[in-house]
Every structure is written in C-alpha cells, then in structure tokens.
C-alpha cells in the first residue's frame, strides 16, 4: 500500500492534550506551517488562550473541551473538526495523565482513571480517527513513551498503559495494512520532556516528581509528530 499524505499546509489536524506541553507546541508549530488545527483538552481557559494566540499569529484554529476517557466526547471532537473545517487529515492522540507511587499504595480508582485516559482515551481517539481517515487517507499518531518498552518503579500504572498502547497501535497498523486502508499509523515514544506534565502529576510520595534525565525540549517531539 502506497500512501501519500498531504503537505501540512493543506491538512486539518486534531490534537488532544493540546492545552500545554507537547500538544500545545505541536498545535502552534502545525498552525505556523499552515495547517488548520483542532485543539482538545479539559481545561477550557487554557484552550481558549492557546487558540486565541494561534489566531493572532494568523493561524486557523478551533478548540473542543473534552475528556478523552469518554467515548461520546471523543466523537464530538470529530464532529467539530468536520463542521469547522470539512474533514480530518491527521489525528494526534497525546492526552495523558501521570501518577507517582508504589503499585501497592495506589488507589484502584486512581489506577483506573490513569488507564482510562492514557490507554482507552487513545483507543477511542484511534477508532474515531480511522472511521474518518479511511475514506481519503491520512495519518494517525499516538503518543506513547519510552516507557512503552521499559517499566520503571513508581510509575507502574503509567508504564502499563503505555505498554498496552504500543500493542494496540502495532496491531491496528498491521490490520489496516492488511485491509489496504490508507491510514499511516505511528507510535511516538518520547523520553523525559520539559513540560508541566510532572508538576500536574498526582503523587503518593510526598514530594514533587522530577523527570528522569536527560530532559528534552517539547519542540523535539513536535517535530517528530509533524514529520509523521
């Protein structure tokens, strides 16, 4: 299957987790390069500010307030993209939450919430994306982690979700290819990135979590996402 993706300046790109960090930087760079962007997150104030900044710089952007752990809200993201821009060319599943603590200390409620966002949120987004992208082709990009391949202490729930996401993404890629469905499926696996992700993390440790060095700029990941 040969798949030719559109140039960025002809694309409509959906980005979840776009109110800060990797998602926000990716949205800004995509808009700067001419793409129409749909920013998605739970924090409406930050989304509104980010969208307004992109528009002031001449970009085309809208936002959707949504919790990706809710499949119905994810479907509404697609509806907004189609209503505002007429199509979807790339879908980036980036939303995630972090939590630090020993597995035996974490509450089951917190562990389920982390899996709902970090795994099921990307499953819902992937399924919504493929339903639209399969018509004319496009790109699905899931943001995993270096921890998709290697578990570490104190982040067991996060590692488990990212391991599951890797298996899901790899399987989806193979199945779509076998059916000649023209969707490029990519898993991006960042290491530690300089974002507010660690400040926002829930911790059972009594101290603020710190990233494992080396720590990279979010622009490095955004470049990879937009290349894909």
Strand content: 15-25%
Q: What is the percent of helical residues? A: 40-55%
Radius of gyration: 17 Å
- Describe the global form: globular
Largest sheet: 6 strands, parallel
- Structural class from helices and strands? alpha/beta
Along the chain, the helix and strand elements come as EHEHEHEEHEHEEHEEH
**Major β-sheet strand ordering:** 3-2-1-4-6-7
Helical stretch tally: 7
* Distance, first to last CA: 17 Å
Query: How many E strands?
Result: 10
Mean pLDDT: 96
Spans with pLDDT under 50 lasting ≥5 residues? none
What features would you describe in this structure?
This protein has 228 residues and is an alpha/beta fold. Helix content is 46%, strand content 18%. The chain has seven helices and ten strands. The protein has helices at residues 21-32, 44-56, 71-85, 108-136, 156-178, 197-200, 218-227, and strands at 12-16, 36-41, 60-65, 90-93, 99-100, 138-143, 183-188, 192-193, 202-203, 215-216. The strands form three sheets. The protein has a six-stranded parallel beta sheet with strand order 3-2-1-4-6-7, sandwiched between helices. A two-stranded parallel ribbon has the order 5-9. The protein has a two-stranded parallel sheet with strand order 8-10. Helix 1 (21-32) packs across helix 7 (218-227), helix 3 runs parallel beside helix 4 (108-136) and helix 4 runs parallel beside helix 5 (156-178). The longest helix is centred in the middle third of the chain and has 29 residues, at 108-136.
